[in-house]
Write a structure and sequence with these properties.
3 domains, about 15% strand, 2-(3-amino-3-carboxypropyl)histidine synthase (chains A, B), Rossmann fold, homodimer, four-stranded parallel β-sheet, five-stranded mixed β-sheet, 4 iron, 4 sulfur cluster binding (chains A, B), DPH1/DPH2_3 (chains A, B), DPH1/DPH2_2 (chains A, B), alpha/beta
């Protein structure tokens, strides 16, 4: 990206590059204050995802100004990577618990979800992405997905594409997703539509990489309004890395089978089924799955039944191969190598 | 240490150097099996401290052999640094929960504590340490302390010293400690005895460093039977580092005040008192206190009301100064610089 585009006006005015340093979020403080007053709450817990933790103190300040003096505001210092990853300790010990930056995975009276919709414009980058989509006269069918941050402009994206002659396919996915067209790092059911090409609108490569892995038969065009780039999702490196891990794990004698204790990341049956069928497999329970935590155990390989993105994206950081449950079945010879597929997560908790 | 000593026989036969690779621990499997059968337990949770996690799978194997087929064994993958640090998630979800390697901080029907006493001999190294103690004719008073691992030989140590003419001073400390003469990384009340010299028998420098910090008026002689060395605790580097952290924190405008959610590490009043008196202080809740977790917040400095050893020993690893509650009072000008003292932890939970 040229420096020019960063400073030029016109269509780029509202893109992520221009708004980089003054993106504004609506923390919905009034809704929080209302809940505190309604419940006569004395303790308010706030949880932010990693990228927004820096804003925590200012949000706490604003809330403290609005709330009675005897209301205590607590900020979660636990890592947070999604709506699957609630700080249940803080949630149970506060009267009002606010989770910022993710849409509800499951509604609960106890939790106030503040989604934090982005104010970056999306149509300029969608327009740029048209050059990577098949022209409507060739193939008018296009799937459309985005992340929670840009859901507020989903209709705008859809209308823009329709006005250019596309037939836009969208669906809600499953229980784990709040909105039509929404994807999560672990769930791409919303892209399960009758179109060979899918347009992903959103920041980064994390989501579209999962999308392309889960739907290898589709062409995934990435329109990134935050970094102002259009690219095509490429899963080759990713796939090579996964096959490499599976091959290395084939020699494993002992297996650590991770059951993740995070509220939305538990797959108890998947984990216990493996341990029951393999006497050299051991059940390990933990919340954060990190290289440090696994290094102290002497296992030859690991199966992670928690967040699939730790397995696939962070895999190379671990000292031993770490596989998804499906990859494990291949490594121990229960399934053929070509059954390798992306590990997705369904349901809530 | 010379290689010679590692391979020589005689007095070194049972020291840590000789036993390094075949130290044996009594995992008290029978006691565990008995509890499982008594409670008709279906889920057994095992928690090991970091240094013993590698033994987890073998212990699980032995237990699986002894237990009925339908009993599931789960191993905690959470970090564990003491009896203050129980995996409460696993504890609540298993019928029998076994905590290895630490003596009880608080008795509970739910928890089986297996202390894992060391089989290294202690008298050879205590004998060597005599040269660093004042001779009994000069000063017969000596305090004696050790860690949970060597408690099984505490009487042996005491007798050895008494036979050489010393008057051995010991005490139980407080509620946080199980045994007479026992020290923890955060509690040296057992060394609060009427003697100017204290003999610490145990592995590593972690405990004696805290001991010397907490009792700066005493000479602390370290008899380390695991590494087979005798040294004198030296707090100078440590003190310089603490004064440095306090000075750097004096410029801080905003403070993150950490309340640790680990069962035996919570000091709620200490944390909330600070936040109530300083409007630029914010309450953060977390279990593991790590550099990564604090980096995402934009605070100028931190006060850690959790484990004091993270603050003092790991302090330099954090990107901003992290202080103990007492050091915080100095940094903000409530207390004079010479009030700096070691942060200790009392009570249970």
């Amino acid at each position: 990206m040229s420096q020019e585009s960063e400073f030029s006006g016109g269509d780029l005015r509202d893109t992520g590059m221009a708004l980089k340093h003054d993106r504004e979020w609506d923390y919905e403080l009034e809704r929080i204050v209302e809940a505190v007053e309604e419940r006569d709450a004395k303790k308010v817990g706030l949880q932010f995802p990693e990228g927004l933790k820096r804003r925590g103190p200012a949000v706490a300040d604003d809330l403290r100004d609005l709330l009675a003096d005897d209301v205590r505001v607590l900020i979660s210092g636990q890592p947070c990577y999604g709506a699957c990853d609630l700080d249940t300790y803080l949630m149970r010990r506060t009267d009002v618990f606010v989770h910022f930056g993710h849409s509800p995975m499951k509604e609960s009276e106890k939790i106030i979800y503040v989604p934090l919709f982005s104010n970056v414009a999306v149509t300029p980058i969608v327009e740029e992405a048209l050059s990577e989509l098949a022209a409507p006269e060739e193939d008018p069918e296009v799937g459309l997905v985005t992340t929670a941050q840009h859901m507020n402009r989903f209709d705008e994206m859809r209308t823009f594409l329709e006005e250019r002659g596309y037939e836009v396919h969208t669906r809600r996915g499953d229980d784990r997703l709040t909105h039509e067209g929404q994807v999560l790092g672990c769930n791409y059911a919303s892209a399960d539509v009758g179109a060979d090409q899918v347009l992903y609108v959103g920041g980064g490569k994390f989501h579209p990489l999962g999308l392309a892995m889960e739907h290898p038969e589709k062409r995934v065009v990435i329109a990134d309004p935050v970094n102002n780039v259009v690219t095509i999702a490429d899963t080759e490196t990713f796939l090579k890395q996964r096959y490499g891990a599976v091959h290395r794990a084939m020699d494993a004698e002992t297996w650590g089978v991770i059951f993740c204790t995070k509220i939305g990341q538990g797959r108890w049956e998947v984990a216990t089924d493996i341990v029951e069928e393999n006497e050299n497999a051991y059940l390990l329970t933990m919340d954060e799955v990190t290289p440090d935590r696994l290094r102290n155990f002497g296992f030859d390989a690991f199966v992670n039944t928690g967040c699939p993105r730790i397995t696939t994206d962070d895999g190379p950081r671990f000292h031993r191969p770490m596989l998804t449950p499906g990859e494990y079945e291949i490594a121990v010879g229960n399934e053929p190598l070509d059954s390798l597929s992306f590990d997705t997560f369904h349901g809530t908790w």
